[in-house]
Amino acid sequence: MSIRIGNSCVNCQKISEGHYCSAHQVQVNDHYTCDSFEMQVALKNDPNCETCSRFNEKSCANPQKAAPGMLCSHWAPLHAEA
Q1: Contact in structure between 27 and 17 (CB atoms under 8 Å)
Q2: Is residue 24 within 8 Å of 49, Cβ to Cβ?
Q3: Taking the model in full, what pTM does it have?
Q4: Which of 13, 32, 37, 57 has its CA 20 to 30 A from that of 5?
Q5: CA–CA distance, 49 with 46 (Å, rounded to integer)
């Protein structure tokens, strides 16, 4: 099964910082989607210990070395929804 980014408002270039849709002039959240969706040019991609769900947890593969800014092959996104 592949994982894809859907037409979620959080990935649309028409959304402002306050989760306001400039196309429809309404407040939205990351569960909204529409046919006017236009993908942002660049998504936030900051894989490091601070953004890893395993940081400071028992499941961390490198608990003695883990630090903000570090990246390892066991990185898992902090906020992921299926």
Answers
A1: no
A2: no
A3: 0.44
A4: 57
A5: 9
